[in-house]
Design a protein that fits this description.
By secondary structure, this protein is of the alpha+beta class. The chain has a single domain, classed as Distorted Sandwich (Glucose Permease (Domain IIA)), CATH 2.70.70. The chain is built from 3 helices and 12 strands; from the N terminus they run E-H-E-E-E-E-E-E-E-E-E-E-E-H-H. The strands form 3 sheets. It has an 8-stranded mixed sheet, covered by helices on one side. Strands 3-12 form a two-stranded antiparallel ribbon. The protein has a two-stranded antiparallel sheet with strand order 5-10. It is globular, with a radius of gyration of 16 Å.
C-alpha cells in the first residue's frame, strides 16, 4: 500500500463516495453527511464519474455537446492543511498555480520510474505554500512530505480535497494536465490516465 495523505488508511477512516451527477451544492451536502459518520476521516472516489459539479465553470463548457464533465482522477476529501505524501519515489516534473475558478489552484506533477517506463502523478488543489522550494528533477523518496491541502479560497473554489491523477504521457503539459474530459475524449483519457486505486494498493 502506498501512502498519499498523512492519515493512516483503514476501511473505517476512508469511505468511498459517489458524486455522479451532483452539482457543487449537492457535493457539499453529500460530504457533510460523511463527516457525521463515526470514524470517517477521508471521503474518496471520482474516477470516471460524470459530474454536474463543473456546470458552473465556463472553461468546462467549450461548445454545446462537448461539455467536459468526466472526472479523470481520484478525489480525496479531507480538511485543509492535511499533509500530502509522496506515494512512490519520484522526481519533480513541474508545477503551477491555476487560478481560474474551478481549476486546480496550486498543482504539482511528479515523475516515477519503473520497468515499464515513466509514470506521472498529478496533485491538485494544494496550498500555495506547497510550491515553495520546488526544483525540476528534485528527488523525493516514498513517504516524503510533498504538500498540504489548500483552503477553498485558493484551491479553485472547492471544498478542500486532493485531486490525484495518474498520467502515462503528459505530452507538452507543464504544471497542468486535464483533470476532466468530454464524452468524446473518454477513450483516449481512460488509456492515458488509468485508475489510481490499484496504484495506491487499496
Amino acid at each position: 500500500m502506498r501512502p498519499i495523505l498523512d492519515i493512516p488508511y483503514s476501511p473505517g477512516a476512508y469511505r468511498p463516495i459517489d458524486l455522479t451527477g451532483l452539482t457543487d451544492a449537492g457535493c457539499r451536502e453529500a460530504l457533510a453527511g460523511y463527516w457525521d459518520m463515526p470514524g470517517v476521516r477521508v471521503a474518496y472516489g471520482g474516477y470516471m464519474e460524470r459530474r454536474g459539479l463543473y456546470d458552473g465553470f465556463s472553461h468546462f463548457q467549450p461548445a454545446p455537446g462537448q461539455e467536459r464533465n468526466i472526472h479523470l482522477g481520484l478525489d480525496l476529501w479531507a480538511p485543509a492543511g492535511t499533509p500530502v505524501l509522496v506515494p512512490e519515489a519520484a522526481t519533480v516534473h513541474s508545477w503551477g498555480h491555476r487560478k481560474a475558478p474551478g481549476d486546480y489552484g496550486p498543482v504539482i506533477l511528479l515523475r516515477h520510474e519503473s520497468a515499464q517506463g515513466p509514470l506521472y502523478t498529478l496533485y491538485g488543489h494544494l496550498s500555495p505554500e506547497s510550491l515553495k522550494g520546488l526544483v525540476p528533477g528534485k528527488v523525493l523518496p516514498q513517504g516524503a512530505l510533498l504538500a498540504t491541502l489548500g483552503q477553498e479560497s485558493v484551491n479553485g473554489g472547492y471544498a478542500p480535497h486532493l485531486h490525484f491523477q495518474l498520467i502515462r504521457d503528459p505530452g507538452d503539459y507543464r504544471g497542468d494536465y486535464p483533470g476532466v474530459c468530454s464524452l468524446q475524449e473518454v477513450d483516449f483519457y481512460r488509456e492515458n490516465c488509468p485508475d489510481p486505486l490499484p496504484f495506491l494498493g487499496w
